[in-house]
Amino acid sequence: MRIGILGGTGRMGKGLAKAWAKHGHEILLGSRFPDKAREVAEQIASETGGKVYGTNLQTAAQEGEVVILSLPYRDCANWLKRLSEELRGKIIVDITNPFGAVTEGKTSGVEENAKALEVPANWVAAFKTNFWTTLDEPTNKDGIQRDCFYCGDDFNSKKVVAELISQVGFRPVDCGPLKAARILDLMVLLMIDLDRLFNGKGKCSWKLLD
Ligand SMILES: NC(=O)c1ccc[n+]([C@@H]2O[C@H](COP(=O)([O-])OP(=O)(O)OC[C@H]3O[C@@H](n4cnc5c(N)ncnc54)[C@H](OP(=O)(O)O)[C@@H]3O)[C@@H](O)[C@H]2O)c1
Questions:
Q1: Does the Cβ of 132 fall within 6 Å of ligand 1?
Q2: How many CB atoms lie under 10 A from the CB of residue 100?
């Protein structure tokens, strides 16, 4: 599958690109600075032996069959408006964290991003509750597999994203419709506080036991 990552040169973007390149996906790292993205892509390609390319945000949005939204939340609305035609109808995996920039509990970052896009797309929220430092450590120091909570309204898109989550090495946990992201946004804030409290150094994760 061809995966476009908007913000592909960032910590999350690089970590996800590495994981998916190892599974044979073609990755397009989208950046405001295509030369920088090409450098990063070459490095990941040589590390993983995968197909990773650097490009601008527009091409990553247009060419990606699945597009990962990995920009700072504050910049998303502006870029989504600019890229709306490229993103129309796509599976968009929103990994961004609004950190209180939306009315907590009443809406969510992903719902606001969906409104900003102004055209229909299949939005799935995922990876919000996973620190970047854990992307290459999908099991913790005790060998417990980390969970990745995700949600969305389109069954088939969620199936695709669940498979991508599994390929990172996390257990996908379906949290239901897109509006469940209102809770995921808040879980991020608590996760950061708890990680500090437990001196987790960015390695804490939420785990659902059954
Ligand atoms: N860090 C975590 O542990 C973590 C965990 C879960 C979710 N998230 C979320 O994932 C997203 C990415 O986080 P990150 O830690 O990877 O951030 P990051 O390392 O700062 O990377 C973000 C990328 O966004 C691009 N960017 C920055 N400002 C921009 C702007 N004004 N317009 C367009 N692109 C811009 C930059 O790429 P260029 O300079 O190459 O354009 C940068 O590489 C954020 O929304 C964050 O809340 C982070």
A1: yes
A2: 11
What CATH number is associated with residue 75? 3.40.50.720
CA atoms within a 13 Å half-sphere pointing along the CA-CB vector of 91: 24
Residue 32 CA to ligand 1 centre (angstroms): 12
- How far does residue 70's CA lie from ligand 1's centre (Å)? 5
pLDDT at 149 exceeding the cut of 90: yes
Query: Ligand 1: does its nearest atom lie under 6 Å from the Cβ of 128?
Result: yes
The DSSP string of 114-139 is HHHH-S--EEEE-STTS-GGGTT--B
Q: 8 CA to middle of ligand 1, Å?
A: 8
Whether pTM > 0.90 for this model: the answer is yes
C-alpha dihedral (60, 80, 154, 89), degrees to nearest 10: -60
What are the tens digits of pLDDT across the range 77-135?
A: 999 999 999 999 999 999 999 999 999 999 999 999 999 999 999 999 999 999 999 99
Determine, yes or no, domain membership for 13: yes
* Residue 116 maps to a domain: yes
Minimum CA distance residue for ligand 1 atom 18: 10
Tell me which residue has tokens 């040589």.
Answer: 46
Residue 202 within a domain: no
Structural domain for 160, as ranges:
2-197
For the chain, how many structural domains are there in total?
1
Residue 30 lies in a domain: yes
